[in-house]
Design a protein that fits this description.
single chain, about 400 residues, alpha/beta, Rossmann fold, 2 domains, six-stranded parallel β-sheet, 14 strands, about 40% helix
């Protein structure tokens, strides 16, 4: 089967572990021919090119900077990318007939590319991996108004993308419920759970000596439990609430908090930390993935934050690295995601709404007194049953038989 995957991710190398790379590697390993269409941003100073590497064909398409750039360039670049992808596919992959068209949100602006591919390949299955419910998420956190022209325009694009998708794979049951509640026109039998998933690396956890060496490298105490948040630091994470939680707990002597990542709100977090130096809190800008993975292995509990205003049920993929490393989690989120409920029901985490510093702190206290080792084992078992890449692969390919 010939599979084409359209993505804005720049992390789809078969040499790394990432939710999209792992899924594409699974398709490759099962004998399918995999073609990945991904951006090469202006800052890389490269032209559009085709590369065959590790048994996968990459069509790297020149685009404007669409990540870690200003809002104007990101917006214009996202709008232009449809025609850039269509042109590049026409020029470089015109002789390939595809059986499966895979794509993910963000963005919601792949509709014309999907239509183009379906016209060329009338028997192909189109499958949307729904990772981002836009524009409602932007409305929730005040990026633009519900009655604005931006919401009207992007909602039209969203509906068009759904209508042109033969199947939609959602991250969790709450995602399925939300999608069907707000999109009655879409056939319910074509919506399913196809979760964020990974391929287990089977790399051993560091022993005590290695763990201490990793902590000492970053100036982290070796004799205290460490809570870590790793990932994007933007408006969706509700950084103001994160700062309030850190402020409230900055004098603790029984644990350490680490926040590592990058994003539009990193400077706000860094400024707060610079003015509130404390040995119990460490703020770090994004690390190379290999270094971050080692750092996570040396920690004890994973943290997940989401803005309380969200009406959409987000399901952050950073959960997977915590579960893979047998770490329990503390989740402070909006009341609509089922992330925390699933963690509590399956014994690998605690959850609260991200609107009370006192309640969040009570969960930190609770976790310090819990059997964290057993909770970590519970999470690892849940990961193996539900979030391995084979689950997502099987959900997709059953439609292609």
């Amino acid at each position: 089967m010939n599979v084409i995957f359209l993505t804005l991710s720049v992390n789809v190398s078969m040499k790394i572990n990432h939710i999209y790379a792992d899924l594409m590697r699974k398709f490759r390993n099962e004998g399918h021919n995999v073609y990945i269409v991904a951006p090469v941003q202006r800052r890389a100073k490269k032209k559009t090119e085709v590369i065959v590497e590790d048994g996968v064909t990459y069509l790297n398409v020149w685009t404007l900077n669409i990540q870690k750039t200003n809002v104007i360039e990101k917006g214009v670049g996202t709008l232009l990318i449809e025609n850039q992808y269509k042109h590049a596919i026409s020029k470089h992959l015109s002789d390939v007939s595809f059986d499966l068209i895979l794509y993910s949100t963000p963005p919601i602006t792949f509709t014309n590319v999907v239509n183009f591919l379906k016209r060329k390949n009338p028997n192909a299955i189109s499958y949307l991996l729904l990772k981002d419910i836009f524009p409602q998420n932007a409305v929730d956190i005040g990026m633009f108004g519900e009655k604005s022209i931006f919401n009207w325009y992007f909602r039209k694009k969203e509906v068009a993308l759904y209508k042109n998708s033969d199947y939609i794979g959602c991250m969790s049951p709450a995602n399925v419920e939300f999608l069907m509640k707000h999109n009655h026109y879409y056939p319910a039998e074509h919506v399913e759970v196809a979760p964020n998933s990974i391929e287990l690396t089977n790399t051993a956890a560091p022993n005590d000596t290695d763990r201490n060496a990793i902590r000492e490298k970053y100036g982290i105490p070796v004799d205290k439990p460490v809570f870590i948040y790793g990932g994007n630091l933007g408006r969706p994470q509700g950084i103001d609430f994160v700062i309030k939680c850190l402020e409230y707990n900055k004098k603790r002597q029984d644990c350490v908090f680490i926040v590592v990542g990058s994003g539009t709100e990193y400077s706000k977090l860094k400024d707060w930390h610079d003015n509130n130096k404390t040995s119990s809190i460490l703020i770090m800008e994004g690390l190379p993935k290999a270094d971050y993975d080692l750092l996570v292995k040396s920690c004890d509990v994973g943290l997940i934050f989401l803005d309380h205003r969200f009406t959409i049920p987000n399901y952050p993929s950073r959960l997977l690295s915590y579960l893979e490393n047998k770490m329990p989690v503390v989740c402070a989120t909006d009341p609509n995601t089922d992330l925390g409920r699933i963690a509590e029901e399956n014994g690998y985490g605690y959850w609260c709404e991200s609107n009370s510093v006192e309640v969040f702190t009570s969960l930190i206290d609770k976790m310090l007194n819990a059997d964290r080792k057993q909770m970590g084992e519970n999470g690892y078992e849940y990961l193996k049953k539900n979030y391995l890449v084979d689950n997502t692969y099987q959900a997709i390919v059953k439609h292609c038989k």
